[in-house]
Write a structure and sequence with these properties.
289 residues, binds zinc ion, eight-stranded mixed β-sheet, 7 helices, alpha+beta, six-stranded mixed β-sheet
C-alpha cells in the first residue's frame, strides 16, 4: 500500500485511523438515483461501494517540509461520546497512534494541525483525555481553523451542543487552551503550503496545496467523498452545508487541475486515496497513483 509520496524536498504521508463501509449509498448521496448508480456499478464495486454501502477511509495527511511538520485533519479520536455514530462512539483503538509513529513522528513533532473543516471525523485527535479533561494531543502545535468555519460551529454549539458533541470535546478546548489560530481560507503559510477555499461541504471548508508548481499536491479534505462525485461533480452528499456550492467547487477545482501533474490526496477515498484528475465526458475521473 502506498503510504508516502515525495514532492521535491516535501513528503506527504497517509496516517490511517479506520476503513469501513458504514453508510448506505443512497442515504449518503440523497439525490443519487438507482438508475445512475446501476450505470456506474461495474467500475465502482467492490472498491468504492460494497453491499450498497460506500467504503470509506478515515485518515490524516502528514506533511513534512524543510520548515514544518503539519497534520492535515485529525480523524475521529478516542474516548469521545458520539451517540449518533456507533462506529465512532467511545473508540479505544491504538491504530492511529501506531500509524503516526510508523510515519516517524511523535505527537511532540507536529508544528501545525490544519482542520479542513470542523466535522466530527476531522477534529477528533485534536484533543485527548487527561485526568478527565480534554487537552491538546499535540503539545507543540498551533491549530489552524478557518475563521468563518469556527464562528459557524461556535454558534451552532451555543444553539444546541448535543447536535455537535465534537465541538465540545475537540474544538473548543483548543480555543480555550489558546492554541487555535484563525485564518482566512486562502491563507498562504509560505511558498510550499497554502490553503485553497473549497466551500460547500461546510461553510468555510479549505483544501491544502503543498509543494511547488509541477511538483505539488492538493489535500482535498471533504470537497469530494467519492469518484462518483468526480464523474458527476454536482452530486451532493447528506452532510453538505450547500450542495449547489460544493458542486461548483468540485467542477472548478477539477477543471483547474485536470490533466496537470498535481496529485489529489482525498480524505475518504479507499487506498491508495491519491490520484490525478483526468477528463471523463462532461465530468472527471481520478486516476490512482
Ligand atoms: Zn469527513
Amino acid at each position: 500500500m502506498t503510504l508516502q509520496i515525495k514532492l521535491g524536498d516535501t513528503t506527504i504521508h497517509r496516517v490511517i485511523e479506520q476503513e469501513g463501509a458504514w453508510f448506505d449509498t443512497f442515504q449518503f448521496f440523497p439525490s443519487l438515483t438507482k438508475e445512475l448508480f446501476e450505470q456506474n456499478r461495474s467500475w465502482l464495486e467492490p472498491k468504492y461501494f460494497i453491499d450498497d454501502k460506500i467504503f470509506l477511509c478515515v485518515q490524516s495527511y502528514l506533511v513534512r517540509t524543510p520548515h514544518h511538520t503539519i497534520l492535515v485533519d485529525s480523524c475521529v479520536g478516542n474516548h469521545k461520546p458520539r451517540p449518533a455514530r456507533s462506529m465512532w462512539n467511545m473508540t479505544t483503538s491504538d491504530r492511529y497512534e501506531k500509524n503516526l509513529a510508523a510515519a516517524g513522528v511523535s505527537v511532540g513533532d507536529i508544528d501545525y494541525v490544519m482542520c479542513t473543516h470542523l466535522h466530527v471525523d476531522h477534529v477528533g485527535w485534536n484533543t485527548r483525555l487527561e485526568n478527565g479533561h480534554w487537552v491538546p494531543t499535540f503539545p507543540n502545535a498551533k491549530y489552524l481553523f478557518a475563521d468563518r468555519e469556527l464562528a459557524f460551529w461556535t454558534e451552532r454549539h451555543k444553539e444546541d451542543a448535543s447536535r455537535c458533541p465534537w465541538v465540545t470535546d475537540s474544538v473548543l478546548p483548543i480555543v480555550e487552551a489558546k492554541r487555535a489560530e484563525m485564518v482566512k481560507s486562502d491563507y498562504a503559510m509560505n511558498d510550499l503550503v497554502r490553503l485553497i477555499p473549497t466551500p460547500g461541504h461546510t461553510i468555510d471548508h479549505f483544501s491544502v496545496q503543498v509543494g511547488k508548481a509541477g511538483q505539488d499536491a492538493v489535500i482535498t479534505g471533504d470537497m469530494v467523498h467519492s469518484p462518483l462525485q468526480a464523474r458527476y461533480p454536482e452530486l451532493g452528499m447528506f452532510a453538505d452545508y450547500d450542495s449547489t456550492q460544493s458542486g461548483r467547487t468540485r467542477r472548478d477545482l477539477f477543471g483547474r487541475l485536470c490533466d496537470s501533474p498535481t496529485l489529489m490526496c482525498m480524505a475518504h477515498f479507499p487506498s491508495p486515496s491519491i490520484g490525478r484528475v483526468r477528463r471523463w465526458g462532461d465530468g472527471f475521473k481520478i486516476e490512482d497513483i
